[in-house]
Structures are given as C-alpha cells and as structure tokens.
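User: Some background: our group keeps a shared notebook of sequences we're curious about, and every so often someone picks one and asks for a predicted structure to add to the entry. Today it's my turn. The entry only has the sequence so far, pasted here. Could you supply the structure so I can complete it?
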Amino acid sequence: MNKPSACPDVRVTLPVKKCDMPELSFKILRTVEEMMPYYGIVIQMPYKFDEATYRNYLEQMIPNGYEQMIALEADSCVALAGFWVGVKLYCGRYVELDNVVVAAGHQGRGIGKQLCLEIEAEARRRACTTALLDAYVENFAAHRFYFREGYIVHGYHFLKRL
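Assistant: Of course. Here's the predicted structure to add to the notebook entry:
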C-alpha cells in the first residue's frame, strides 16, 4: 500500500509585481539658485514652509555641507533627496540622507531606490563607509523601504524643541 507523502510537492505561483525601472539621470545641486526651482517637490513632505523660509534654511544649511541630488526622467525632476557628508565618532565618514521625496504620481516605480543607490555610490566616491538617515516613527512605508534596502535601526534620534 502506498502511503501518501507527508510533504506533497505543491508549487504555488505568486503574482509578481512588475516594476519597469525608469531610465533616470542624476544631478547634484550645491547652490540655493540650483535648489529653489524644486521647491514644489520639497513641499510634498509632511511639514510645510513657504518659499522664503525654504530659501532661508538652504542659506544656512549649504555652508555646512548640505547638498541635494535630483532624479530626472527626461528633463523632469521626479525625485529629490538632500544629503550631508561628515564624520561621527561612532561610524566614521558617513553620508546622511535627508528628506528623500519622490514626486506625487511617481511612487512605486523604483525611483526612490535608484536615487538612494546613486547617493550611496556618490558617498563611496567620497570615501564614506556608512549611510545613515532618520525616518519618522509613524512613517511605516519608509521603514519597510529602508529595511528592504539593508538599513538597520541602530538607535533613537531624540528631539526637543527649544
């Protein structure tokens, strides 16, 4: 008598989400004049400020090493991320990604992934050994994205308004 197999050979085919990776070019922005035209993407973040405030922030940040990288599809900016290069005692030379924003209507196409990879490649060219970033506690989509990209939770970022 044939006994049924304890583990039958069952194969399940799951649908695969196809993600056509768009062809992008990348550009680093280093001046207020280069960054201001992309204010429309920056304000898609959850916190809001007017253009004058944005300009004022950039004027203070850029002398401290702040740069932006934009992702262009054809000639249209579809994503933007700020970044800083520095040195910390706990991790050495690092790149910090700051405010990664994919323009409305372009999420889910792999653009954020490509932008982050391009910033990481730029960081390696600048001899960085670590990439770090902050993500809001309630931004679960960002958490999933960064975990998938190999980031780990290393600590807490505390904030106290003065």
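Suggested note for the entry: The beta strands are 25-29, 67-73, 76-88, 92-102, 130-133. Residues 2 and 8 are 13 Å apart (CA to CA).
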